[in-house]
Amino acid sequence: FSKKKIQEIRDQFPILKKKIYSNSLVYIDNAATTQKPFQVIKASEIYYSTINSNVHRGLHFLSQESTFYVENVRKKIQKFIHAKHSSEIIFTKGTTESINLVASSISFLIKKGDEIIISYLEHHSNIVPWQILCSKKKALLKIIPINKDGLLQLEYFNFLISEKTKIVAINHVSNVLGIINPVKNIIDKSHEYGALVLIDGAQVPSSLDLDVQNLNVDFYVFSAHKMYGPTGIGILYGKEKILNYLDPYQTGGEMINKVSFDQTTYSDLPFKFEAGTPNIEGIIVWGEAIDFVEKIGVENIQHYKKELLSYAIKLLSRIDGIQLYGGSDLKKRSSIISFNLSKLHCFDVGSILDRFGIAVRTGHLCAQPLMNFFNVKGMIRASFSIYNTFEEIDYLFDSILKAKKFLLKH
Ligand code: PMP
Question: Residues in domain Aminotransferase class V (predicted)?
């Protein structure tokens, strides 16, 4: 991308004009959530001023219109991830709810002594639901280890997997190290043993091309807010045959076919898993975010973010006493860079960067087992997006040097 093109993109994000302690905002906390372009912000206003109505129930014009837009976004997501049927797209609150949905709806399949495999790299939301399921069912949670760079040790995975394994749940891209995991190998190997696979793709949309059919994955989950869309909405993709087989998650309106006091039958997919009024606005607005991403092109976004990452690694590795995590193989990395500085506390460094107007994430990054692995309390994480610039990385570099100098003196 030319500088002019990036400036054009930046101009679509009003928040980037904000001053933080009289400095320009440098927003590099995109792995937590991305900023929203005008077309997404505007879509929310348009929805409430011209479409607002409940879906799927009404005969009247507005209800038909809101239903049409919601179902249209379902189809858009189906296309975006190359799912076979739009009914395989279940709207949820986000990645976390999608994982909880699967862990709950699949629990009837898990028996004492069964095994579930996750990895050392997981976000808490891909640990705790499985841990609870295992403890309820007296099943065992097995963990794929990583090497010192944070790469999954696949030879151990081959050792852990067996006929006892019922579910394998792994992230596609680590939210801490930005490592892109070899999920296709893991999916294929798991299927050889009859295990189902859930991939936590929270860090993926707009960072990698997604093709759930090609991956042959059983469940794939992600949130809208990390791809320029609104918070409070995300999806569970699941293979039709498997979703049909699972129990419903929440129950109530929308997910039923017939209700009597003796018995209830459930709706077909996707509504069986969508109890209650959905986040109609969130879904419709998300559609605009997908249009935004597709207009620029996932591949172009991916390419640009990789350039930013490569530049950041090159620059930051020059800092004396910096500890960068995640290894040096850029082919295996997405646009996330986590680090620590000498013996300095990550909160102290983060607080000073904040004073310079730089938004980074600090702390355990929702991955305490991974922090324990590296024997640290936390890390500082910079994560890039399409609106970030090389100049912002220069500014980050200078600001880290200043923070270090200040903190070592005091
Ligand atoms: N998994 C990973 C890898 C993530 O990065 C995140 C968000 N930080 C989540 C799960 C949870 O996503 P959400 O908060 O949108 O449910």
Answer: 26-396
Look up residue 58 and give its two tokens.
Answer: 């009404």
Residues making up the chain, counted from first to last: 410
Structural contact between residues 237 and 81, judged by C-beta atoms closer than 8 angstroms: yes
Nearby residues of 328 by Cβ (< 8 Å), 6 or more positions away: 149, 313
Q: Closest Cα to residue 272, out of 240, 249, 292?
A: 249
CA dist list (Å): 141 to 132, 158, 167: 10, 15, 10
φ, ψ (nearest 5 deg) of residue 231: -80, 165
Distance 205 CA to ligand 1 centre (A): 12
Ligand 1 atom 2 nearest Cα: 202
CA distance 4 to 332: 29
Categorize the per-residue pLDDT at 58 as very low, low, confident or very high, splitting at 50, 70 and 90: confident
The candidate with the shortest Cα–Cα distance to 200, out of 175, 227, 221, is 221
Q: What residues does ligand 1 touch, defined as CB less than 6 Å away?
A: 32, 94-96, 123, 125-126, 171, 175, 200, 202-203, 223, 366
Tokens of 369: 């087992």
pLDDT band at residue 254, thresholds of 50, 70 and 90? Answer: confident
Please give the full DSSP string across 179-219, using - where no structure is assigned: BBP-HHHHHHHHHHTT-EEEEE-TT-BTTB---HHHHT-SE
Going 184 to 206 to 126 to 240, the CA torsion angle's sign is: negative
57 has pLDDT over 80: no
Average pLDDT, the chain: 97
Q: Which is the catalytic residue, given 284, 366, 393, 396? A: 366
Of the candidates 199, 224, 201, the residue with the CA atom closest to the CA atom of residue 278: 224
